[in-house]
Amino acid sequence: MAATTVAAPPTGPSGPDATGRRLLRRLNPGVGGWQVAAATAATVAVALALSALLISVTGGSPTASAKAMYQGSMASPAAWTTSLLYVAPLLLVAVGACVSARSGFFNIGQEGQVLIGALFGAWAGLRLALPGPLLVVSVLAAAAVGAGAWAGLSALMYRFRGVNVVVSTMLMTFLAQQLVSFAVNTPWLLQESRLGRGTLSPQSNPLPESARISSLGEYPNLQINGGLVLAIVVAVVFSLALARTRWGFRLTMTGLSPAAARHAGVRVGALGGMALAISGGLAGLAGALLLASPVGTNRLQPGMSLNIGWDGLLVALVARNNPLLAIPVAVLFGVLRAGGSFLAATGVPPFLVDVVKALLVLAFVAPPVVIGMLRKRRRAGEPATTTPATDPAVSKQDAMEGSLA
């Protein structure tokens, strides 16, 4: 009898990144119910207890630290204004990460894409002579297009040279940092203009008032920047697109099974590359918000990304690649970021905020993954419930009794 061979699914550069698919499956095991909810509540409690313990070990007071975090992020309208300014770029980066993860491409270069978006946005705001509304739109559009093209380079490298997307997006972050540093240190590019005999700093001129995003409300009352409205609209639109459109269905199918998607006529490589470019474009839009909103100095600077790219990726992981769920998670991370600046007054190192965020990410991400692994092992250890087709003497009743033994 001739041996039967099974053809392996195509793994060439036309399909999504294999590493991204594995991470997508592990972060979305598809388990639910009260077990995951109970495990998540328990791990969050453990994370908060460990955070309090770390604060105590470093010589601080957990109670005073919690009070300082509250005062800096939620105690007043002005504090909420600061928190919401951070929510907008975090949410945009998270939505982009959700889109790319759905396609099977795991983009971790958002930090560099934020910088590239700010670079292109600064060039448009400082070089184009347009009336106010058009100038703001041009800043946002240039940031999104520039960062989207930057992320698209990783898709092209994977398509034609087989370069791993995770590796290429991460390494291009360092290249983006060098490009921004070069731009703000080059007089003919974006370095600030010399005034008198003063020393030039590695930064651009401030963005003109007509290129900045306006806010609703006045200090000390609550102020809602237009960037937050834009970020929420983007999250809702992409949530509907992923859940209710043919494009969203094809994107999800590509991430879960590129072979099945290819068999259904989906252009897997083009769709995945588009998702990666969209992810980069939204990260670039976040960079434009850092440049054109009151959250920063309105100048292009090498360190202006403020780890927004990394934190936005964490928001997407905690939200389990759900753009709508990313909204409250981004609010949580915005509160932690805004309140972290007040920890110095209590004698606690501000970097402990990053430790708290890491513990919370593990607390939210680990339970479904661990429970999914345990269920998989339990199913693997269960006896077979089917009867071999080559043994006609075994009856259906015998097979059922064997499965219950």
Polypeptide structure, described:
With 405 residues, the protein is an all-alpha fold. Helix 6 (132-161) crosses helix 7 and helix 12 packs across helix 13 (326-340). It contains 15 helices and 2 strands. The protein has helices at residues 18-27, 34-57, 62-73, 77-102, 110-127, 132-161, 165-184, 226-244, 246-256, 258-263, 268-292, 308-318, 326-340, 352-381, 396-404, and strands at residues 215-216, 224-225. Residues 1-14 and 387-405 have low confidence and may be disordered. Strands 1-2 form a two-stranded antiparallel sheet. This is ABC transporter permease.
Compute the average pLDDT.
Answer: 83
Structural class: mainly alpha
Main beta sheet: strand number and arrangement? 2 strands, antiparallel
Write out the strand line-up for the largest beta sheet, numbering strands in chain order: 1-2
Question: What's the total number of strands?
Answer: 2
Secondary-structure element string: HHHHHHHEEHHHHHHHH
Hey, roughly how much beta strand do the residues contain?
A: under 5%
- Would you identify the regions where 5 or more consecutive residues have pLDDT less than 50? 1-14, 387-405
* Gap between N and C termini: 34 Å
**What would the principal axes of the Cα set say about the shape?**
globular
Number of helices: 15
Question: Percent helix among the residues?
Answer: 55-70%
Radius of gyration: 25 Å
Quick overview:
The protein is mainly α and 405 residues long.
Features:
single chain; disordered N terminus; mainly alpha; 405 residues; two-stranded antiparallel ribbon; ABC_transp_permease
